[in-house]
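dumping these here so i dont lose them again. two proteins, back to back, each one seq then structure tokens. dont judge the mess
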Amino acid sequence: MLVHSKGARRAVWALFFVLFLPVFALPLLVIVAASFATSWSGALPSGPTLVHYQDIAHGDAGQALLTSVLTALAASAGALTVGTWAALAAERLGRRARRLVDGLFLLPVAVPSVVVGLSLLVAFSQPPFLLNGTPQIVIIAHTVLVTAFAYQSVTAALTRLDPAYEQSAAGLGARPGYVLWRVKLPLLLPSLTAAAGLCFALSMGELSATMMIYPPDWMPLPVQIFATTDRGSLFAGAALAVTLMAATLIVLLGVSRIRTKAAYR
């Protein structure tokens, strides 16, 4: 929109594709190609086959994918609840207190995620909070890691929200709870759905902290991808990675449709 001449626009688009294809699109396309291959004898994978996807359909990958989806859904719901509540509460605080709350929520993403996993492993390995070896500790770790993004998204939406709507409802005699539930949250719905989609995608791809704490009966798909490729099965790992990308993309497209409908209400 900032470039007016056709020649300059074409140059910008050409530069975009020159940078986009090698850095972003080409590696993903190579993984997709590798998931249908049995060997890699040249510049690209060769030996087309569907055996890797057949193994996924009849193996443990389906359970690992379900584990990832359930973990991501639970973590997204928890992060959205905590992040929204904290953003609404911080809105009423002073500048110094708000900065303190911002720092607390950004702390988990300011340190390596493996540190978060180790800290939870140490914290929940003794009674009365003995969660080590349970699915709950994995969900808690994912929630801790993605809550900052939900908090930041809702905080940014609150700063853009016109206070006239809330003031008008309060002036008509509406109680604070009614204003929050029927006025403020509906106006925040597009941002809430966007935050939920971001949290879900980040949880689906989380590996470092999960490797520290996951129990054998609750193995998310990224851990299985790492284990498969670590054994040297690169093509089977590529098929698992494509499955993970496809499942995440389907959920994000569904969230995008919900967000679009909410924006036009």
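---- next one ----
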Amino acid sequence: MLDYKFPRHWPSADELPDSDETPVDNELQELIPGLLKAILLILWAERMDWFFGIDMGIYYHPDKPAIVPDAFLSLGVERFYDEELRPSYVLWDENVLPSFVLEVVSPTYRKEYTAKLEEYQALGVLYYVIYSSRRRRKPRLEVHKLVNGKYELQPGNPVWMPEIGLGIGCERGSYSGVTREWLYWYDAEGKRYLTPEEQVKESAQRAQQESQRAQQESQRADRLAERSDRLAQRLRELGIDPDNLS
């Protein structure tokens, strides 16, 4: 929750621009956040206290332009208000800062490691995550955590974020028909959460295994029944009524 008390007369989300009309310049800026949100929609399907925004403006003052990260996650807010959904994220309406902000570095450098880092730090965002697949000598994924008002780079891949209850990391995989390195969510033990496609495949494999197991049990029961019938027939040939056997 925000400690600062915003004036009540400031405009609502419906009265503010819902886009800065700046197009993304890399398809990954859409696909990477899209995958993270798709996983969350299944993982937290029963929860209604979170919001994951993609390329959506975050307003912190009505007279200043919105900050538009590639993605952000807020906890302790309503998933949606009504069927119109959110046009933007207005801090004096929500009264909750995003806990997590993601920037995917594009071929056109947009100051993700300098000005934006300082901007999110000043705003008080707990985790600022930067991903650049073009990096060679430095980590492609950087997770910065706000500690005493300053961002500190967190080691490891994935990085566990206890305040959120998720880890964030990168590894090779397949999504939207593309095999490459993607960002994923992880649990506290570092186990990756499955994508929707992987969950569908896993469910299909599980159903197939159950079907095969049921078929094997049916065949086993048929063999036992045949064996019992042969034994009963043999007893009758010997003049013994199998129904009288206890």
